[in-house]
Amino acid sequence: MKNNEIIIAGFGGQGIxxxxxxxxxxxxxxxxxxxxLPSYGPEVRGGTANCHVIVSEEAVASPMITKPTxxxxxxxxxxxxxxDAVVPGGIILVDSSLIEEDVKRTDVTVIRIPxxxxxxxxxxxxxxxxxxxxxxxxxxxxxxxxxxxxxxAKCVPAGKxxxxxxxxxxxxxxxxxxx
Amino acid sequence: xxxxFSRPEALNDVELHYCPGCxxxxxxxxxxxxxxxxxxxxxxxxxxSVGCSVFSYNYFGCxxxxxxxxxxxxxxxxxxxxxxxxxVFTYQGDGDLAAIGTAExxxxxxxxxxxxxxxxxxxxxGMTGGQMAPTTLEGQVTQTSPYGRDVKTQGYPLRVCExxxxxxxxxxxxxxxxxxxxxxxxxxxxxxxAFQYQLEGKGFSLVEVLSACPTYWALPPAEALxxxxxxxxxxxxxxxxxDKGAETDEK
Amino acid sequence: MAEKVLMKGNExxxxxxxxxxxxxxxxxxxxxxxxxxxxxxxxxxxxGGTFLQAESEVAAINMVYGAAGAGARVMTSSSSPxxxxxxxxxxxxxxxxxxxxxxxxxxxxxxxxxxxxAQSDYFQAVKxxxxxxxHLIVLAPSSIQELVDMTQEAFDIADQYRMPVMIMGDxxxxxxxxxxxFGAKEGRKLPEKTWAANGTEGKRPRNIINSLYIxxxxxxxxxxxxxxxxxxxxxxEVKVEEYMVEDADYVIAxxxxxxxxxxTAILALREEGIKVGLIRPITLWxxxxxxxxxxxxxxxxxxxVEMSMGQMVEDVRLAVxxxxxxxxxxxxxxxxxxxxxxxxxxxxxxxxx
Lengths: 179, 251, 353
What we know:
The structure holds three protein chains of three kinds.
Chain A: E1 3-11, H1 16-29, E2 33-38, E3 48-56, E4 70-73, H2 76-82, E5 91-95, E6 109-113, H3 115-121, H4 128-140, H5 145-153, H6 161-175
Parallel strand pairs in A: 1-4, 4-5, 5-6
Antiparallel strand pairs in A: 1-3, 2-3
Chain B: H1 24-38, E1 44-48, H2 56-59, E2 63-66, H3 72-82, E3 87-93, H4 94-100, H5 102-110, E4 116-121, E5 124-125, E6 131-132, H6 151-154, H7 160-164, E7 170-177, H8 181-199, E8 204-210, H9 214-217, H10 221-235, E9 239-243, H11 244-250
Parallel strand pairs in B: 1-2, 1-3, 3-4, 4-8, 7-8
Antiparallel strand pairs in B: 5-6, 7-9
Chain C: E1 5-8, H1 9-19, E2 24-27, H2 34-43, E3 50-53, H3 57-69, E4 74-78, H4 80-95, E5 100-106, H5 122-126, E6 137-139, H6 144-161, E7 164-170, H7 171-175, E8 177-180, E9 208-209, H8 216-236, E10 240-243, E11 250-253, H9 257-271, E12 276-281, E13 283-285, H10 289-298, E14 301-306, H11 312-320, E15 326-330, H12 339-350
Parallel strand pairs in C: 2-3, 2-4, 4-5, 5-7, 6-7, 11-12, 11-14, 14-15
Antiparallel strand pairs in C: 1-8, 6-13, 10-12
């Protein structure tokens, strides 16, 4: 897709903004125009958090997304808040281990992944965001897995290879989910 | 013939605007003598404040910057941080320093900002026509305390040296007066020490100089000095309130 | 060229200031611009600069005044309620003809207001704010790269004209990340700061930094001289982006981030066959009056879009001078107008509603 407008939303502490940063850097290092806009203020600690990421072949006009082409929802309030805004034909990714309810929309592609459960099983509950990110990249094909890893590498401080390796592992679990 | 008395070089040869009997002139002279004696006029930047001494930027022979009411310690902070090797002092009255500029004063002291504050306390707002200051004594009549300062509704006179002595950053605090020759000599020594402390990088130094305002005390100059030496000093005891140099010597 | 990095607006503006040679920053925490202070606190000690968290906004701007008077490149940053507190100092800085840079990451008001993006401080920035006859040069970037480029430029402009320059963004610009590149730019040729009060060393007559003039005629003369300088600024420093204006029937006037939202709307409207363009003032003062005058010859009408109840719209009306209708659409309190809302407003104009 030429223009990916992605809203990532969930609770504070789920790494929503970080997942957005990985997508933004992935876009950047692979030659796309990008923008990253977080919700800000006291709600980012424990309340709901969301982040607007645009990965586009053209210069980004408004960094604020009103018609997302994709929604990555990591809790029910976020799904309910944003699902109606997704464009027809868009994608909604849902962390099914936290959201049992169905997506109401029938004109979009819905992908359900038990990301938090999967992350928990490998002892990295806080990295469910990476599973969702991996799955999103696979679903959209914006870049290949190597392109995604290049982006993720930009988000981990130099000298923290162990953290990068773990992120890579979770990204791959999401990227290869269902195969 | 031997010359025994002349104008300090750090004091410009201009007519001062102060009222007859005002002691600002004495204090200006003391600051200027100290700048001369330390040989630092060319390295000094002074900050004038708002109040009777607002025009001090015309009187001191060094570079000067004029500050908004109460903000002189913040302005001096900006100058000192930009020019750490320069000597920076403020010259402020009691309305400026102890009312509208209380926050700037306390925090400059608390930061141990390496500046010198000359605090002239005459217990009244002179420039605006003799209103009550935070330092006006109980019962004192001013334009805005026409029945005498009533502490029940107008609060108590603020003792600045005592207040600042609680800040860890203050290196030197002394209260002096200019009511007689002995006290004037002590004032000069205190001012010199304050500048020396700054030159040695010891931190915030302040000399509170109790001063007379014959005009708005409604007293003849000689009577004003008498009041200064009695009633005013009674409430504001003279002395050293903090001396980091002495503390180090003791240890 | 340097590699592009992703940076938040608040961090990018701080880095840009450092690269422009600013070594003194006086700040006070306030959302949504606190990252500027945080970045300065981290970087300044490493490069021999000063970061000082002041006791108040009032103190911070007066520290800026002191450092500027001493001849240093100095900056402060705040958001709306804090900028209100700084107005006293800004007036003194103007009155003493000192250069400095002030960042204002605007949030909703009045009062404590909110922390979401707003443009409701246009009047304060452009029409005064502090007391006295004066102007600030006000720059309004719409992207992080522009913010970076303008910050470096802002210090030069401030030094050239001995004026404070305000960079006005909003919470969105401060918080968002975009790729930026910091290139070594050639600065302007600037006059020596021979006026600085930084110690005579006995080598020159003393300098006085002051804004007090008891003689009315002295003060008038000085203000008149300052306004002559303002004319130079108006002649030399106007910056504006004109986007698809040439064939436009309707021209949107918008600045800062909301101008980008307007661009999204313009593209959608053009797909519908409605020819819409954008005039984006990059300098809010001096205002790009000429661009509006020119567009008024060809366009059928103007729509000013702001995150306020309508402030810049007054300047647009002055520029258009009654030649064409100038409508307004805005949201306030921290709400950002959507492209759909802007499209609707243009459609209404077209239908003559």
